Request: fold
Amino acid sequence: MRDREPFASALAEIRAKIRGGAILPGQALVVDDLARDLQLSPTPVREALAYMTGEGLVVGREGRGRGYAVSTLSAGDLADLYRLHAHQVVFALTEAARRRLSPAAAEASDPNADLAERAGRYFQRLVEASGNRTLLRAHQALAHRLHLPRSFELRVFPEAEAELAGLTSASPGPALAQMLRLYHRRRVARSEQIVALIVTSA
Reply:
């Protein structure tokens, strides 16, 4: 069987660069440059980029230049991503209740993790609790796209730490579903500001 380690390494490294903002939305992804930086051959890098197009994190470029680029992010795009995320996590709560599955308890805050990481882990646990593997795969792809915007949320919402603490301490049920809807509606309303921060950080 063919060794998949170079592919896994390329996928993890490039995805981390995009999630962390080292490679920004709209920026070109040059296979040979990435392969050199990662000390890999171009083939696993190309495979990783093709895989990430399926997640929506990367897009193929048309025309003479061709190749790949990080997906662009307009205010409308980000608002749509937040809306979709709200539907996913609220549906996850419904699925967990329907299947009589108990959501994992909220883990203690990791003081070494930033807000984006902790929020991502919280939502991941909610979706895992649904027992719906198809939903989980869709959520993981969406979470990669939302990670960078989440890293700017604290600059827009000074109360974001307390807001996340409120979510993690709430019991599953209709009240939590309403809190989740409100959490996402606030971010939809400020999507333009969040995208502006990402753009000016370039």
